[in-house]
Amino acid sequence: MSATAIPNSRRPRGPVPNALTSAQLPRFVELYTLLAALAVSAAVLAMIGFNIVGWLVLTAVIYLVGLGILSSVVENRRKATDRVIRGVVTIAFLLALIPLVSTLVTVIAGGAPALTWDFITKTGGSVFNPQTLKVTVVQGAWQAIVGTLIVTGIAAVISIPIGILAAIYLVEYAQPTQWMARTVTFLVDVMTGIPSIVAGLFAFSLFTLIVGPKAFSGFSASVALSVLMIPIVIRSTEEMLKLVSNDLREASFALGVTKFSTIVRIVLPTAIAGIITGVMLAISRVIGETAPIFIAASFTDNFNANPFSGAMQTLPVMAYSGYKFPSQDIAASYQSAWGAALLLVILVVILNLIARIVARVFAPKGLR
Amino acid sequence: MSKRINVNDLDVYYSDFLAVEGVNMTIEPRTVTAFIGPSGCGKSTFLRTLNRMHEVIPGAHVDGEVYIDGDNLYAPGVDPVSVRRQVGMVFQRANPFPTMSIRDNVLAGVRLNSKRMSKSDADDLVETSLKGANLWNEVKDRLHLPGSGLSGGQQQRLCIARAIAVAPDILLMDEPCSALDPISTLAIEDLIEELKREYTIVIVTHNMQQATRVSDKTAFFNIAGTGKPGKLIEYDDTATIFTKPSVQATEDYVSGRFG
Amino acid sequence: MKSLQDDRVGTGSSQRPGSPNKGAGTARVKARPADRIFRFLSTGSAGLIMVILAGVALFLIIKAGPAIVANWSTTTDLSGGTTHGFSSFWAYVGPLIWGTLFSALIALVLGAPVAIGIALFISHYAPRRLAGVLGYLVDLLAAVPSVVFGLWGIFVIRPFLIPFQDWLNQYLGWIPLFSGPVSRTGSTMLAGGVVLAVMILPIITSISREIFLQTPRLHEEAALALGSTKWEMVKLAVFPYARSGIVSATLLGLGRALGETMAIALIMSPSLVFSVQMITDTRNSQTIAANIALNFPESNDLQRDGLIATGLALFVISFGVNFIARLVIARTGGPRRAKKSARLTPASDATSLLTADAAESPVSIRSEQAARDAEAGDERTELAAEQNEDR
Prior knowledge:
The complex is a heterotrimer.
Chain A: H1 29-48, H2 52-74, H3 77-111, H4 117-121, E1 125-129, E2 134-138, H5 142-173, H6 179-192, H7 196-210, H8 218-243, H9 246-254, H10 259-287, H11 291-297, H12 315-324, H13 330-362
Antiparallel strand pairs in A: 1-2
Helix pairs in contact in A: 1-2, 2-3, 3-13, 5-8, 5-10, 5-12, 6-8, 7-8, 7-11, 8-10, 8-11, 9-10, 10-13, 12-13
Chain B: E1 5-14, E2 17-27, E3 32-36, H1 43-49, E4 60-68, E5 71-72, H2 80-86, E6 87-90, H3 102-113, H4 119-132, H5 136-139, H6 152-165, E7 170-174, H7 182-195, E8 200-204, H8 208-214, E9 217-223, E10 230-237, H9 238-243, H10 248-254
Chain C: H1 2-14, H2 24-69, H3 76-79, H4 89-125, H5 128-143, H6 146-172, H7 189-213, H8 217-225, H9 230-259, H10 262-267, H11 288-295, H12 301-339, H13 350-353, H14 356-379, H15 381-387
Helix pairs in contact in C: 2-12, 4-5, 4-7, 4-9, 4-12, 5-7, 5-14, 6-7, 7-9, 7-14, 8-9, 9-12, 11-12
């Protein structure tokens, strides 16, 4: 906006001969070039066979080349480079929107037919009918919804206190130079980088060594998710605590308030919106994890609400296993996979929305 | 090289907020003009409108005309980029590019335009610019070291060298000495005295002694209160402003009775 | 901090000698144990982090041990099924490591330039008012569960790439990467790489965007005042400042791509081979994570131990990549950046940006807030600058 918008702000007087004026392309040249590029590439493709992808790609190329040539002829090489780069980064951004939109459209298109009230409230699975010797697939995700909520809920209950307390240690108690603070900071970095499937393997190893072989359980999956969630909670809480101005703490100490009260009454309330947001986003992050739950809780069609024994189904694993290990009725399995995927996306979107609403509504004035 | 600036009924806005109102002034070539006034009166803002640097601030726009030797900065079709090549600017805090050597810093602006420059031409330009900024003798042995290793005053002179390397007609200085110690300040003031021979210089300063030391003319800006626009109150020879100003507010300010 | 707290007892009352000081004594007695317990709890939680990580390493090693030391061709449990035909663990994990690195590299080559372009668009080209929203859109990509990306890859990317792969093979088939026979199903390394690239976009984008936004205003203005165009300003002021940040953002993206399971497991038809071919059905090098996910349910105990051992290898590799990424920031970025945080808004230190790896969204929300701040604040920037002049 800085370059082109201002000179055009109402200036009725005609240009007197002006040494500062250099030839300039008209204001909406980008738009014109874009329209021209769309038209030209459509025309070209009309001759060799039209398809939408080719049209967009060709348009982008023609747009960049056209604008570059136009600008270097009328203006100069530097401006041409500037305009072309502007086009390139804009295209990069639009490029990123394609998978976003495409994923959402695909999931909704695939999942919407499966998403009925029965699908949400019934336990699904294959039913073997001894009379007809046929396997029929019952569409239902209730067992997976319950499983997801239990597994993620336990993971949250484990991770949130540990994460927030560890962040408080790092920000409020530890000196940055202390060995423990440095080690913990480093280890949190390491934990952040743990591949999710490794977390699943850890939980599996832990429980097979303690409980014995075939130790699949919802709790085991929660442990795996906690390994992934704790560092996220620590990091976001740490960030938020660091944003709390030191003046506030000093003001509180100067009034003779203890460290504990300062943290609980002053620091945490100031940062609480950010902390809750971070926690919600951490939950939405792990709720979609597939690999660790798959390894630690395995998958099943049975309804199991006991996290401490037996395999437990969850939505992401249902989406994965429905596609990768389908039952005899492949179409039905695919459909329930899509239904599970859509439910999962809806859950994640809700969590994200809550996070953003919390951030917006409860943010203290100082941080907004 | 040096050019005259005519400002014609200029208003500066931040979005809808009128920050500076109705400025008219003529700045003669080969002079130093100082802008003084209390904080927040819009003198830095106004200075920026002289090379359209205010456009960097979102929402800022102007109404009115600024002529540089008869060419209106705000005429349609004027490219802010070419304006800034003719009107150089030095900022409050020295800002050499940290990743570049001293030499590259001086050449940074020139390299934008000319695709290639022979090494000897570049060497000459570096030498003249640094000499022009009174820095050559201090840095000639370490041209390839990063500019951020210099002292504050040297960095500021490096920025001046960088600004004059592109051969502008006018140099704007936005409180160039406010972050410097007295000795570095003196060096910059001496430099301004020399640069005056070739450039039109406009300097914003809070230091009234500095204004009397370096400037030929002084413009006093004031603000009626918070939320009100800043205005040019008085513009005259520096000696007049500081000895017998015609407006009471000016006298109050220069004599320290202000606020 | 600690000394502050200890001093409090001594100075608390002396600081306000005139005040009646009522109830202070009892309050202190009550507060002390709470203080101590709280301190113990938070320190304990921090200590727990060490225990957990030690546990992760320990249990993986214990479980992986038997498979690593076993002779795979003579042990019955390992000589059949999915682990058939490997003389030892190392022969098994070799191709998997290669596949992991290769797929992550493809993702990086495809994704990193786009991600950096997006970051630049959001930080410097998009209209300021929109920047926050646009950043959020990109962050939404991070919120999409990986299994959803996997399904999307199967049903959208695979068929989409088939004609493109034919074209690649026809014209560039002489390059080993694109040599045939071309896949008819689309379950190729390239398809997996494209989906991985999409999945690492948000991480690289959010970290680079944060760093681009932190470029000192002074340097940007210096470039503009010299008469540079926007792109020249970016080259002069933004990129040099952000270089190490971009490098480590890219490395963290690489780390993410290395550990990603579902995209590859769902999309690619794998083989345990050393192959650089990207568009075939039969010569796609399998990755560690996908291999575990695919074979884990059907494996016997010792084979599972073998898979856990490959997981250990993955842990070590991604640890290495993440470690280097943080080293880059710490060595080149941290101290230099801290010294010259000339921006008017308080810039968080560079290392904390790396949290974006795990929690890009909170950071982005914060940056959005910062953008909003900047929007309001910038209007007064100069006025503020004028007021600050004597500092």
